[in-house]
Amino acid sequence: MSGRLPGKVAFVTGGRGGIGRAICARFIEEGAVVYAADLTDSGSLSSSSKDASRYVRLDVTFEEEAKAAMASVADEEGRLDILVNAAGIEIEKTIEHTTLEEWNRSFAVNVTGTFLASKYALPLLRKAGTEGRTSSIINFGSYDGFIADPGLAAYCATKGAVHALTRAMACDYGPEGIRVNAICPGYIDTPMLQSFFGGAGSGGGGRTIDSLKEAVRNVHPIRNYGTPDDVANLVNWLASDEARYASGQLWVLDGGLTAQVQQMRL
């Protein structure tokens, strides 16, 4: 079997979303058995197209569902090599206008969801280490965990938490052969990005994404924003044995956006 991930077993939360679906498709191309976990089989995309991943219904905020999902993987495969925590939500508000319920929901999905999926995947991931292989957890942070977009307070806070959690997990489980990294995307063309630009928060003030494409491209040094496939490319490498020495890192994928001094654009 060809590819970087022959015979490996992968579990992707948010696996029916824009980025998650691209990751699942890439993993399958690379020879992996893939479980796509999400709230619905169609996910955040309007298309009802199916792929070769195995759909698992999962609300990442519920402990019992996380336990059950990993138990299913254990029963069917007996092990897990790759966990990708891609499930996430975004609320476009300052803290003054964010309700406690919205704040808690943001942390429940973005942080607690990462915690629960990882916690119950660890016994399966640990088996790879005992068999002389390494396993990989890939969390999803954001460039908003380093710098802040206006009006995304809860989102920024959750991503900063994921960054810290990633480093802690890498230190705790590295000795057992489990690598842990986080990918920190910038602007990626997903349903979440379109919602951001169409919203009245820190996005486009109600304008459509089409009217903002040129402005978004121009703010990036490479004059473009990313695609889900761009993210899947990096996830695929981090999941593979080629990345055996990569752990505890926050991999920023933003087209150079955070590398520049913004004042120089004036």
Summarize the structure.
This is Short-chain dehydrogenase. Strand 1 (9-13), helix 1 (18-29) and strand 2 form a beta-alpha-beta unit.
Spell out the blueprint of helices and strands:
Layout: E1 9-13, H1 18-29, E2 33-38, E3 54-57, H2 63-76, E4 82-85, H3 100-130, E5 135-140, H4 153-173, E6 178-185, H5 191-198, H6 213-219, H7 228-239, E7 250-253
Parallel strand pairs: 1-2, 1-4, 2-3, 4-5, 5-6, 6-7
InterPro entries: NAD(P)-bd_dom_sf, Sc_DH/Rdtase_CS, SDR_fam
Protein name: Short-chain dehydrogenase
GO molecular function, one term: oxidoreductase activity
Notes on the structure:
The protein is of the alpha/beta class. The chain has a single domain, classed as NAD(P)-binding Rossmann-like Domain (Rossmann fold, 3-Layer(aba) Sandwich). 39% of the residues lie in helices and 14% in strands. The protein has helices at residues 18-29, 63-76, 100-130, 153-173, 191-198, 213-219, 228-239, and strands spanning 9-13, 33-38, 54-57, 82-85, 135-140, 178-185, 250-253. Helix 1 packs across helix 7 (228-239), helix 2 (63-76) runs parallel beside helix 3 (100-130) and helix 3 (100-130) packs parallel to helix 4. The longest helix has 31 residues, at 100-130. This is Short-chain dehydrogenase.
